[in-house]
Specification:
Elements: H1 6-23, H2 43-46, H3 54-89, H4 109-125, E1 148-151, E2 156-159, H5 161-168, H6 171-183, E3 204-208, E4 221-225, E5 228-232, E6 236-240
Antiparallel strand pairs: 1-2, 3-6, 4-5
């Protein structure tokens, strides 16, 4: 991006659309094209006073480059997380399959990314099954979407194992946990045995149900599968996630 003229493009865009806003102190990097990665990161460099030395400008330029790299990596992680959650972990109705391509070696881009992608699109457009297998939806067969869990501490009924696990990790639940411990000094976290490690397949998570537990203190869980109702307390309950 830099060798293709990024700095010159940013400087031209700044002069035409943002310089006057900076002078009026009305620039906004949270709306429209101004929030694009690669523009706001160079704000200090683009607005450097004309009296700045070349060394000072180079320092600001390098600072902008590092900020650009950090923002790009953060955005890539966010995209990957969104794809995993939306398409692989919690797929809804009419969600298309996802294919994975190896982008590790950029020098082999056409061989490992472009050509396989074109082959997949060509097969799908013809109604044929691509030779490349799609990524399997993670743990779809192990999740119990009909299970019911009751958190007495938060006064909530949670439906679904995945949603229950998310609730136990939520800020609101942990707030009630801390409040419970303050009101009950006898509640000692150290008395709760640690949850056993997850299995090799990573599909079972143990949740402590002790009233002073580190995960769900004060919670009474009702785990309902199909027509069965089971209430358990003071023991570890395996939750499929």
């Amino acid at each position: 991006m830099l060798s293709a003229g990024l700095i010159e493009e940013l400087r031209d865009f700044h002069v035409r659309y943002n310089q006057q806003k900076v002078q009026d102190d009305s620039q906004n990097y949270q709306q429209g094209i101004f929030q694009s990665i690669g523009f706001k990161e160079f704000h200090d460099y683009l607005t450097a006073p004309g009296s700045s030395t070349q060394q000072e400008k180079d320092t600001l330029r390098d600072k902008g480059i590092e900020a650009l790299k950090i923002a790009t990596r953060r955005y890539a992680r966010k995209q990957n997380k969104w794809v995993r959650n939306r398409f692989l972990k919690r797929p809804g109705d009419n969600v298309p399959v996802v294919y994975g391509l190896d982008v590790t070696d950029v020098s082999r881009w056409e061989e490992t990314v472009l050509n396989p992608a074109l082959q997949i699109l060509d097969s799908l457009s013809k109604g044929e099954e691509p030779t490349i297998q799609p990524i399997r939806v993670q743990e779809a067969e192990q999740r119990n979407k009909r299970s019911h869990h009751t958190c007495d501490l938060c006064d909530k009924v949670i439906i679904g194992d995945l949603e229950w696990t998310a609730h136990l990790r939520s800020k609101k639940h942990h707030y009630h946990v801390r409040k419970k411990r303050k009101l009950d000094p006898a509640c000692d976290q150290s008395q709760v045995p640690p949850a056993p490690p997850a299995s090799a397949a990573g599909i079972v998570e143990s949740v402590s149900e002790d009233s002073c537990g580190t995960v769900a203190p004060g919670c009474t869980e009702t785990s309902q599968e199909s027509s069965q109702d089971t209430r358990t307390t003071d023991k570890e309950v395996p939750v499929t996630v």
